[in-house]
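So, could you explain the following?
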Amino acid sequence: MRLLDEELALDATWMEFAATLGRNKPFTKQVREYVWSNCYVGVSPFTPRQIPLDQLLGKDADQRPLPGFHLGADNAMFGVDYPHFESIYRSTMDEVAGLVRHPSVTADDAQKILFENALEVFHFDRDVLAPHIARVGFDVEELAPVGA
C-alpha cells in the first residue's frame, strides 16, 4: 500500500503525459483509502504468528497509531481455515483469547473482527443467527482479562 501511495503521489510527470493520451487519473483518493472503504480481509487462519496484532490494527498497546498502512479492525475478519492443514480449529479458543487479551485490541475491535464485519460482508441476519450462536458460540468477555 505504501509503495502504491508513493507512486501515485509522484504523478506530475506521468499524469501530464497520460493526459496527452487521454488517460487522466480517474480517482482522487490514496490506494489505502480505497482499500479501507471497499475491502475486507479474512485473516485465516487467525494467529498473531501470521500477522502481529499491532501491525494488523495499526496501534500500540496505548492505542497510539503506528506509522504506515494497516488493515485495521474495521476491515479484518477472524478465520479458522477449516478443514485445511493450516487450520487452527483445534486451538480456536486459544487464538480468540490471545486476540481479546492483546493490549492493543479493544472490546470493539474484537467484536468487529470476530463477528460484526462478517455480518456486514455476508449480509447475515443477526436474529436468524442468534439461536445458533447461543447453541455453539462462546462469550468473548469470558476470555478477556479481568478488568478489561
About this structure: Helices lie at 2-9, 12-20, 31-38, 53-57, 92-101, 107-122, 126-136, 140-143.
